[in-house]
């Protein structure tokens, strides 16, 4: 009977396991293997090159620039998205007129296709005619090319990402806030606790599991952004907005250097794993699950 139960369980799990291995684990293993080989071109087969693809990164200035840009991008988008999502959730959690409409409005950017979001903001940033330029013109400021300037291109893309994903994270915070017992608020009000103290002493510790989940997802999103870059800047000007995943896309699909793209992918996955593990070790000590 025990063996029969195991066979039945494996039969139900087999389709999911096959898909998981075929589309996740096998490509990951193959990517690691390909990173130690050269790229096959025409009749020239791939040859084993060892660590040459990784050594190439040390001399690759664009790779270093992409890493720096990605670090800045992550350092802004992660805390900004978390803070904005929490602020929106606290606002729409309160009893205000039109609360349902506000929740829908905050969540709307999440359901829009990423390409559509990039095109909308491309119109906002359009030099001379965009929304931001119209506002600057009314304020008497000189025109500015937001995505065409090396000084502002990366931050322009960063703003789009925060706007697009904060509404998605807000839903999780809103669900977490609704699980806080009303009796805690009533007891705090009786004791004369201020809203700020209640948030710092009660609300924030109770929603830390949600914060951990959101921060990990925000970190993953910070390293897998490619749609906005592809539509808005294509990594320019002068690689000012080049991010790691878009650089991998260029190497693998534009220049067809799949071996070097595989090595870059391995580095990105290792970085994500290290950052994710660090987040769990640092935030898990602050998480209260009960």
TrEMBL record:
Keywords: Cell membrane, Membrane, Transmembrane, Transmembrane helix, Transport
Topology relative to the membrane: Multi-pass membrane protein
Domain ABC transmembrane type-1, residue spans: 67-277
UniProt-listed Gene3D superfamilies: MetI-like
InterPro entries, sorted: ABC_transporter_permease, MetI-like, MetI-like_sf
Gene Ontology, cellular component aspect: plasma membrane
Subcellular location: Cell membrane
Highest taxon, organism lineage: Bacteria
GO BP annotations, alphabetical order: transmembrane transport
Membrane-spanning parts: 7-29, 71-92, 104-126, 153-175, 204-223, 261-282
Family, similarity comment: Belongs to the binding-protein-dependent transport system permease family.
Protein name, UniProt field: sn-glycerol 3-phosphate transport system permease protein
